[in-house]
Design a protein that fits this description.
Distance between the termini: 32 Å
Helix content: 25-40%
Shape: globular
Number of strands: 3
Strand content: 25-35%
Structural class: alpha+beta
Largest sheet: 3 strands, antiparallel
Radius of gyration: 15 Å
Number of helices: 1
């Protein structure tokens, strides 16, 4: 029986750590590489994560605070 490859495509997702205004932090937020352009990756990533946060807030009925900063996670 053939085995499936365990190697993942590295370029599929880009990971970011998000620091919010009130001090909480979320790690490894995934953003598809296709969503980010060549220039202003941080601005596009922030807009994408804010859209995710709005969806999360609608589902959980708990508002999310504003994003203070984004840090791109380096791959090991």
């Amino acid at each position: 029986m053939a085995r499936r490859s365990t190697a993942r495509r590295v370029e599929e997702f880009i990971l970011f750590d998000v620091l919010y205004e009130h001090g909480s932090r979320t790690s490894n937020r995934k953003i598809p590489g296709s969503e980010l352009g060549e220039l202003d990756e941080d601005l596009l990533a922030k807009a994408y994560i804010e859209a995710q946060d709005r969806q999360i807030a609608e589902i959980s009925r708990k508002p999310r605070t504003a994003i203070k900063s984004l840090t791109r996670v380096r791959r090991r």
